[in-house]
Known about the structure:
Elements: H1 2-22, H2 25-32, E1 40-52, H3 55-60, H4 64-82, E2 88-93, E3 96-101, H5 111-125, E4 130-131, E5 134-138, E6 141-155, E7 161-165, H6 167-177, E8 183-187, H7 188-194, E9 200-210, E10 214-224
Parallel strand pairs: 6-8
Antiparallel strand pairs: 1-3, 1-6, 2-3, 4-5, 6-7, 8-10, 9-10
Amino acid sequence: LKKKTEDLKRERRLAEDLLHQMLPKSVAKQLRKCQKVEAENYDQVTIFFSDIVGFTSIAASCSPLQVVEMLNNLYVCFDSRIESYDVYKVETIGDAYMVVSGLPERNGTKHADEIAKMSLDLVAAVRQVVIPHMPMGRLQLRAGIHTGPCVAGVVGYKMPRYCLFGDTVNTASRMESTSLPQKIHISSATYDALLTDDAYEIELRGEIEVKGKGKMKTYWLLGNKNYSVQN
């Protein structure tokens, strides 16, 4: 009986760990208690989007298994690195990677700094990821960041997902889609948030036309004066 109880506890821990990989702990706790998870409004968060440059053409030259293996190598690398930062991985959709800081646990004004350091780390890390079927090739990342308000909540009953909504999500996605290879494209709002401690090397990109937003003044995030990415 004692052995069976220990086995049951171990299986329960494994199930909880798996659940916490898919949903924030606070949300998973409410769902386990059959409580309704209320959507929540956040005044300020920072959202990061990235995707692989030329992914469509890379995927076209690979077998399905090779595509999955390549993305798995990349995201295992990313997932292990983002644990060093106060961020929450929202989801991956194909070759797109979405991360947020400032929710579900609020962290004051730290969210822009955490995402900025993480993004510099990931852009450096992607160059070290080996493509199994293209040993001489190297992946390139295109990244975008925006800071602003958003709403977060659980959507769906079967395979529930913790989703973010609002214009901040759309603008962060636009920052990514208008970025360049191995560049981190940031909005004016993120630029302002990063100015507080004068720790970042930032270059003005200028005004660009952004679909659905009109002209926006944007910047390139180049580095951090006091912080070097992990080796």
